[in-house]
Amino acid sequence: MNSASSAAPRLLLVDDDPIVLNTLGTGLSRMGYGIETFESANAALACYRAAPPDLVILDYRLPEMTGAELARAMIKEAYRPIIVLSAHSDAPTVREAVGLGVSAYLVKPVEAERLAPSIEAALARFAELEALLKQGMNLREGLEKNRIINTAIGIVMERSALPLDLAFESLRRLARDQRRPLRDVALELVDAVSTANGILQRLRD
């Protein structure tokens, strides 16, 4: 593992390719980000659980667990923006990643200069979402609710091509129209997408 200054946004970079770790880690560090690099998904998850970072960048194909499994485990602990890097651009893989609520999906090879705008956009959207949630709901209801709503908003953004604020408002409006808690509507959407993805996966197998 490699560590850098904690004064800057703290990023976890997870990839089993040491060349990718070194190239991206060095480039992002020079841009002022605090970087912690991991070849091991399990080690990255342990670090995440101990102290969630500001953002995670992970490879979608890892030996100890898949990128999807790692992303799910991390989001279950505490929601943070996740950027996925992958050599695969097929629609099912991209949809699976987006269904998890990741902030961006970039196809390798990716240089630090190309990655930086996605990092800044993801951090900005996360800050904006936190502000929207503070305006629209009681944050004491917990991180789990935050995670589910974040994931649902990501799905609405991807499926309806809406910006974050409009996606959030559309979910909130639906909850009001149905006279249901926002979390219940979000959970129903996430479950429906997960079920559909599971059926499609079984059909492909």
TrEMBL record:
The keyword DNA-binding applies. Signal peptide: none annotated. Keywords: DNA-binding, Phosphoprotein, Transcription, Transcription regulation, Two-component regulatory system. GO terms for cellular component: cytosol; protein-DNA complex. This is Response regulator receiver. The modification 4-aspartylphosphate is found at residue 59. PROSITE patterns: ANTAR, RESPONSE_REGULATORY. Residues 129-190 form the ANTAR domain. Gene3D superfamilies: 3.40.50.2300, Winged helix-like DNA-binding domain superfamily/Winged helix DNA-binding domain. It comes from Sulfurifustis variabilis. The keyword Magnesium does not apply. It comes from the Bacteria. GO terms for molecular function: phosphorelay response regulator activity; RNA binding; transcription cis-regulatory region binding. Pfam families: ANTAR (PF03861), Response_reg (PF00072). One of its GO terms (biological process) is regulation of DNA-templated transcription. Residues 10-123 form the Response regulatory domain.
